[in-house]
Design goal:
Mean pLDDT: 83
Distance between the termini: 24 Å
Low-confidence stretches: 223-252
Number of helices: 24
Structural class: mainly alpha
Strand content: under 5%
Radius of gyration: 24 Å
Helix content: over 70%
Oligomer: single chain
Largest sheet: none
Shape: globular
Length: 503
C-alpha cells in the first residue's frame, strides 16, 4: 500500500480517537476533522474534500436518517406507555422460576431493539432487583444478564441506530441484517447467561453497601439484637411480621412502572390502563415483520428469475411488499400504532408531541455522527485510500471480512462508544466491499460484533450498569467488561460461518 495513503488512513482514525478522548469536541466534529485530515494527506484537492463530505453526508442521511428518527420515537412511546415493562413481565412468566437469567437476558435483548441501552436498563433494572429480593440472592448475575442482553441487540439488530447506520453506509439489505442480527443474538445469549451465572456468585459480596441495602433489605434489617426491623420488599411489610422467608410477593407482582410518572392523574371518569404484552409488541413486531417480508419476497422473486446476484427487475406481485416493507413506511406504521394503540385516548396532544420531541432530541447527535461517518467513507473512496487499502488487504492472509471487525474493536477500546466504533469501521470498510468481494451483510455484522468488546471506563453504559449493579473497580471489570468481551469473542466463529454462507 502506498505509504502516503496508509498515513492518511492512520491519521484519520487517530484524529477521531484523539479528538474524542482529549478535547472538548464530540464525535461528529471529530469525524469531519478526520475527513479533512485524511483528504489532505491523501493528496485530494481541497475543494474536492468539501464535495466528498457533503455528498457522503447527504447520501447517508437520505438513506437512513428518517428510519433512525422513527425508531427512537417508537422506543419512547414503548417506554412511557408501559409496553416495555409489559413485555419484560411476559418473558419472565414464560421462562418461569429458576431460569431468571435467561428471562432477563431475553428481556434485555427485546427491549433494546427500539430503546437505547442506557434508558432501557434504567427501566428494567427494578425487575432484576425485585427478583433478587424474592430469591434472597443472585442479583449480580441477573443484572449482568439483563445488561448484556441489551448489548447484543443494541449492537446487532436495527432499528437500533448503530447497526442501522452501518447498514446504510455499507449498502446492506436491512431485512437480512435484522434476521442475521437476531440469529447472532439467539446464539450468543447462552454465552451471556453462562458467564453471568459463573461470575455473578463470586461478585455478590462485592456489591456496595448502598445498593446491597436496597436489593437485600432483609440483610440491612438485622439489628444489633439480631431482630429484623425493615421491609422485605417494595410493597411493604416487615420481616418481623412475615418471617424471614416471606415470599408472598413475587417478581411479577412488584410494581416497577407507574403510569402517573408519565401521565399524571387521569381525567374524571377515566383511569390508567395497563398495556398487555401482545398489544405492546405490535409497534415493534409489525414493522420488523414487514421489513423481513420484503426481503423474503424479493429473494423468492430473484430465485424465480434466476437472478440471485446483481440488479434485477422486480415482478409486479412484489410491489406491495416492497412498499410496505420499505423501512421508512414500515416504521411510520409502527409509530402510528404506538401512539394510537398504546397511549390512552385522553392523553393530551401536547404531551405526546413532547415525548416525540424528546425522542428526536436524543437521536439528533446520532444522526449527525451517522452522516459524518458517511462523509468519512466518501472521502476514503474519492481520495483513493479505500482502493489502496483493498489491494493491500487482498495481498495478505487476513480474511477481508475481519477488517471491519478489527477496526471496530480498536476504535471501541480507544474511545468507548460502540456507535462511533460501528460507524467508523463501516466508513473505512465501505470502499472495500465490492473490491474484496465481502458481502455487505457480513461486513455490517463484523462492524457491530467488533464494537462490543471490553466495555469499560470510557463507555457511558459501563457506568449505568455498574452503578445500578453496585460494582466498583476490579469487580466491575470482571463482571461487566468481562461479559461484553465474552460475547465479542463468541461472535468471531459466527462471523466465519456467516462468511462461508454468504461470502
Amino acid at each position: 500500500m502506498d505509504i502516503q495513503l496508509l498515513l492518511a488512513l492512520v491519521a484519520g482514525i487517530a484524529t477521531i480517537i484523539v479528538l474524542v478522548l482529549r478535547t472538548r469536541l464530540d464525535a461528529f466534529i471529530a469525524l469531519l476533522v478526520a475527513c479533512v485530515v485524511t483528504g489532505i494527506l491523501a493528496g485530494q484537492e481541497l475543494t474536492g474534500i468539501v464535495g466528498s463530505i457533503t455528498t457522503g453526508f447527504g447520501t447517508t442521511l437520505g438513506n437512513i436518517g428518517i428510519v433512525i428518527g422513527l425508531g427512537v420515537a417508537i422506543g419512547k412511546i414503548l417506554e412511557v406507555s408501559g409496553a416495555a415493562d409489559a413485555l419484560a413481565r411476559a418473558f419472565l412468566k414464560a421462562f418461569g422460576r429458576g431460569r431468571e437469567e435467561w428471562a432477563l437476558g431475553s428481556v434485555g435483548s427485546l427491549v433494546s431493539i427500539p430503546v437505547f441501552c442506557d434508558s432501557g436498563y434504567v427501566i428494567m433494572n427494578p425487575l432484576a432487583r425485585s427478583i433478587a429480593r424474592v430469591k434472597r440472592g443472585g442479583y449480580v448475575a441477573l443484572a449482568l444478564a439483563l445488561g448484556c442482553g441489551m448489548t447484543l441487540t443494541h449492537h446487532m439488530v436495527p432499528p437500533t441506530p448503530g447497526p442501522l447506520a452501518a447498514t446504510g453506509i455499507l449498502g446492506a439489505d436491512l431485512g437480512l441484517v435484522i434476521v442475521t442480527g437476531l440469529v447472532f443474538t439467539v446464539i450468543l445469549l447462552p454465552v451471556v447467561v453462562v458467564y453471568a451465572r459463573w461470575i455473578g456468585p463470586t461478585l455478590e459480596d462485592k456489591i456496595v453497601p448502598e445498593v446491597r441495602d436496597v436489593v437485600y433489605p432483609h440483610l440491612a434489617a438485622v439489628g444489633a439484637g439480631g431482630r429484623r426491623t425493615t421491609r422485605t420488599g417494595a410493597q411493604g411489610g416487615s420481616a418481623g411480621e412475615h418471617g424471614a422467608e416471606a415470599t408472598d410477593e413475587t417478581e411479577h407482582d412488584v410494581q416497577t412502572y407507574d403510569p402517573e410518572t408519565y401521565f399524571g392523574e387521569p381525567p374524571a371518569g377515566e383511569e390508567h390502563r395497563r398495556v398487555g404484552a401482545l398489544l405492546g409488541s405490535l409497534p415493534l413486531a409489525i414493522p420488523l415483520a414487514l421489513i423481513v417480508a420484503n426481503t423474503v419476497t424479493a429473494a423468492v422473486d430473484r430465485n424465480q428469475q434466476g437472478a440471485l446476484s446483481g440488479d434485477y427487475e422486480a415482478s409486479g406481485w412484489t410491489a406491495p411488499f416492497a412498499f410496505l416493507g420499505n423501512p421508512v413506511v414500515a416504521l411510520v406504521i409502527g409509530a402510528i400504532l404506538a401512539v394510537y394503540v398504546l397511549l390512552p385516548r385522553w392523553t393530551p396532544r401536547s404531551k405526546v408531541q413532547g415525548w416525540l420531541a424528546e425522542a428526536a432530541a436524543s437521536a439528533g447527535l446520532i444522526l449527525l455522527i451517522t452522516g459524518a461517518g458517511g462523509a468519512f467513507g466518501q472521502v476514503l473512496r474519492d481520495s483513493g485510500v479505500g482502493d489502496a487499502l483493498a489491494e493491500a488487504i487482498a495481498s495478505t492472509a487476513l480474511p477481508a471480512f475481519l477488517v471491519p471487525f478489527v477496526i471496530a474493536t480498536v476504535v471501541r477500546i480507544a474511545q468507548g462508544s460502540g456507535t462511533v466504533a460501528m460507524i467508523t469501521a463501516a466508513s473505512v470498510t465501505a470502499p472495500l466491499v465490492d473490491t474484496l468481494g465481502v458481502d455487505p451483510v457480513v461486513a455490517v455484522l463484523a462492524c457491530t460484533a467488533g464494537s462490543m468488546v471490553f466495555s469499560y471506563f470510557n463507555d457511558s453504559y459501563f457506568w449505568v450498569v455498574t452503578r445500578f449493579t453496585g460494582l466498583e473497580g476490579t469487580a466491575a471489570l470482571k463482571g461487566w467488561s468481562g461479559i461484553t468481551t465474552a460475547v465479542w469473542a463468541g461472535s468471531i466463529p459466527l462471523l466465519f460461518v456467516l462468511n462461508l454462507i454468504m461470502g
